[in-house]
Amino acid sequence: MKLLREKIELEGIVLNENVLKVDAFINHQMDPVLMKEIGKEFAARFKTEKITKILTIESSGIAPAIMTGLELNVPVIFARKRKSLTLTTDLYTSTVYSFTKQESNEITVSKDYICEGDHVLIIDDFLANGQAAIGLAGIVEQAKAKVSGIGILIEKSFQPGANEIIAKGYRLESLARIESLKDGKVNFAPKRQI
Ligand code: G4P
Ligand code: NA
Ligand code: NA
After folding, report:
1. ipTM score here?
2. Cβ atoms 138, 107 nearer than 8 A
3. Which positions bind 5-phospho-alpha-D-ribose 1-diphosphate (predicted)?
């Protein structure tokens, strides 16, 4: 997606060879116009999948997920990283290990919101090691629903997540794919060959 690549080039900051800072438009300040376009782009890419729900994880996945849900006219659910005081119903849970933070998090979704027969589109901001996306897919499968696809804003193609998701047979759509972050520069990857 050209608009997102341009934004990354103009406002992204390469922190090191592994990390791109995008606090200016995704992770801290957010750009609603960009998010709206991202929602349209995901809606277009997944329009044939008969999506019934969108699933993301708090917090940075919520903005692009809600814009996609608005376009597709379906509910948006975010998995929680902390147990909610009022969430007393039965929960689906997955354990997500973050290589970046070297810690495991239990993520949860109420059984009320994903049901057998749902066609679920998973949305997240970054794809690095893929553990968040795979954990979300696990929750969808516990609910006997279908993972209709995984939509990512920024895929770091040099990290293992993308290949792992494709190897598991999920449809992956990444709006910007980064091949490397060498010498303080963002090098985008060419279109994926499938
Ligand atoms: P994984 O799910 O792909 O395995 O990712 P990992 O555990 O390595 O990522 C941990 C957190 O760091 C996630 O956010 C993820 O979005 C974010 N992240 C990973 N790589 C980058 C990067 O290059 N740049 C930025 N800005 N973020 C990155 P989180 O802690 O779950 O936080 P939230 O922002 O969604 O609240
Ligand atoms: Na995230
Ligand atoms: Na993040």
Report:
1. 0.94
2. no
3. 128-132
